[in-house]
Amino acid sequence: MTDPAALAAPRTRDFMPLTGIDHVELYVGNAAQAAFFLTRAFGFREIAYAGLETGVRDRASHVLAQGRIRLVLTGALDSASTIAAHQHRHGDGVKAIALGVPDADAAWQEATDRGAHGLAEPHTIADDHGEVRVATIAAYGDTVHTFVQRDGYAGPFLPGYAPREGAAPEEPAADDMLLTIDHIVGNVDLGQMDEWVGFYERVFGMTEILRFAGEAISTEYSALMSKVVSDGSGRVKFPINEPAEGRRRSQVDEYLEFYEGAGAQHLALATRDIVGTVAELRRRGVAFLAIPDSYYDDVPARVGEIDESLQDLRRQGILVDRDDEGYMLQIFTKPLGDRPTLFLEIIERHGARGFGEGNFKALFEAIEREQDKRGNL
Ligand code: FE2
């Protein structure tokens, strides 16, 4: 007799439980001004700071929060620093995608046993608010994953950071436009996608939940291939893109050229009211990719009933897609910095678990118009 409970039990233990994306750290050319931009334009609040005033001699780090999103903007204070070298090569970009874990030592052990390249062994950082256990492994390009075990910490961010006005929100504030990081996309070199999908499967126990390639997402000029890995809880989702042969240079090729290697392409930030949020972001000066008016002609036939008015979506340039489980709305900003590399996505899900595959073609055509203006198509 087979015990039904045994059948229902998970086949394998989750050797790498993740509580979510703890924070994302960007290395930038001017952290003070990047923080000013992201707070003014996107509604983040600065909750913590480390720099000369707090006894840190080599960097200035501004910690921004909104909803459960935490971004750290770090700039170098001297030319010899590895932060300066990273920014010199890549421009402003994502350095660390930090993952919350219940046990940083166990996460490090499991990851390195499974072939991850260790960069910083587990160690404790502490201040008056308690202690945090951290460890770091390498990811694609010069990007890293830091494991953060913060159950013993009550400070605004991490030990060594001084609080700013408003301190860390436990729950999203009522007026937060942006709530969580829905997914973070990595661009890797041609032929490397399967290797990195394999890395997340092997090292993190993630599973491939979606893949896209070929006709459905290619245009006259460019194509890409994408596979999405997710942890068991669905809280951490990493699409991995690589360029595919196109008639001309694809957007992934352009990223890889200007980032000078693999790196994080975009952060998708979730909202509950994308129409209101995008209107407010536009009012604050955020520039989004322009969508051709003709895109909306076939939306009713393609997507069916949705709660939002098509007029509002058209006015704001918001894209809409549907899968078996519901629909989703999304929009993409123009690159945040000087190089055509990192950008943000704003996303609102109504059941759909996809990433806007049905929009890729319309979207790529919009991106290519921008590439063309830059002489990169
Ligand atoms: Fe996305």
Task: Present the secondary structure layout.
Elements: H1 4-8, E1 20-27, H2 31-42, E2 45-50, E3 59-66, E4 69-76, H3 82-90, E5 93-100, H4 104-113, E6 118-127, E7 130-138, E8 144-149, E9 162-163, E10 180-187, H5 193-204, E11 207-212, E12 223-230, E13 237-244, H6 251-259, E14 263-270, H7 274-283, H8 299-303, H9 310-316, E15 319-323, E16 326-332, E17 343-350, H10 360-373
Parallel strand pairs: 1-4, 5-8, 10-13, 14-17
Antiparallel strand pairs: 1-5, 2-3, 2-9, 3-4, 6-7, 7-8, 10-14, 11-12, 12-13, 15-16, 16-17
The structure holds fe (ii) ion.
Which short descriptors sum up this protein?
2,3-Dihydroxybiphenyl 1,2-Dioxygenase, domain 1; 10 helices; nine-stranded mixed β-sheet; binds fe (ii) ion; 2 domains; eight-stranded mixed β-sheet
How would you explain this protein's 3D organization?
- Mean pLDDT is 91; it is low at 1-9.
- The longest helix is centred in the C-terminal third of the chain and has 14 residues, at 360-373.
- It contains ten helices and 17 strands.
- The radius of gyration is 21 Å and the shape is globular.
- With 377 residues, it is an alpha+beta fold.
- The strands form two sheets. The chain has a nine-stranded mixed β-sheet with strand order 6-7-8-5-1-4-3-2-9. An eight-stranded mixed β-sheet has the order 11-12-13-10-14-17-16-15.
- Strand 15 (319-323) and strand 16 (326-332) form a beta hairpin.
- It has helices at 4-8, 31-42, 82-90, 104-113, 193-204, 251-259, 274-283, 299-303, 310-316, 360-373; strands at residues 20-27, 45-50, 59-66, 69-76, 93-100, 118-127, 130-138, 144-149, 162-163, 180-187, 207-212, 223-230, 237-244, 263-270, 319-323, 326-332, 343-350.
- It has two domains: 20-163, Roll (2,3-Dihydroxybiphenyl 1,2-Dioxygenase, domain 1); 180-374, Roll (2,3-Dihydroxybiphenyl 1,2-Dioxygenase, domain 1), CATH 3.10.180.
- Fe (ii) ion (FE2) is lined by residues 183, 185, 266, 268, 345, 355.
